[in-house]
Amino acid sequence: MPLYQEPVAIIRALDSAIFAEKSWFSDHVPFAENESPIKVLAETVQARGFGASAMGVERDSHFLTVDRALELQSLLPNASIVDFSQVMWEMRYVKSPLELACLQVAAQICGRAATAAFAVAMPGINEREVFAGMTSEAWRSRADNAQIAVMASEPRSGSLHAEIRGRTLAGGTSCMLNLFHIFAAKLPEYAPEIDRRADRRTTTVGRNNDSNSRGTIPHNETRGLCRGRRSRCT
Fold first, then answer.
1. Sign, Cα dihedral of 175, 121, 197, 17
2. Helix, strand or coil for residue 64?
3. What is the pTM of this model?
4. pLDDT of residue 1
């Protein structure tokens, strides 16, 4: 908001510094930890003269709860609340050349990190060593968040939210890598820093991973994700 002016962000005060560093626009209203962000949002809308305007709300958002949506509607009784579902998802299908370039680099980083992890994933190796091999290669490859990844081995290799338990790998067991490496590019002609992610790889410990691997392919470009490959330990 608003439609024809610079956007205004309502953000946590704790995030103000990173917002100033990363965002391509500067207008924002911070809220403290003991404040209601919905109340601050409604007050900002009213103060800027948009209390009786049409407001798009993402009803399909994973973060906007029913309570918060109802609270916003009650605090802005004169506003026309319009369902904005799917619009942002559809917009994210459209990528600029810079975004596509960042996606490609992020996918390449994930490929190199996964390859490094597969090289370590041998029988008798602790899964922590596999994770260390993966993240260290990601850092060397210029990932901006190489610590954000998931590594799990059987029986938890099918879970996207597993955690490392220090399991020693055995031959024939599956080893899953869930990578979220971000590559951010900043060029003079582009104000924003574009962050995009690449996602998941799976291997089987001890098997020739090259012969059992698929190339990195685009999976869901609305989210900037890439899927990868699977093999096994023998």
1. positive
2. coil
3. 0.65
4. 64
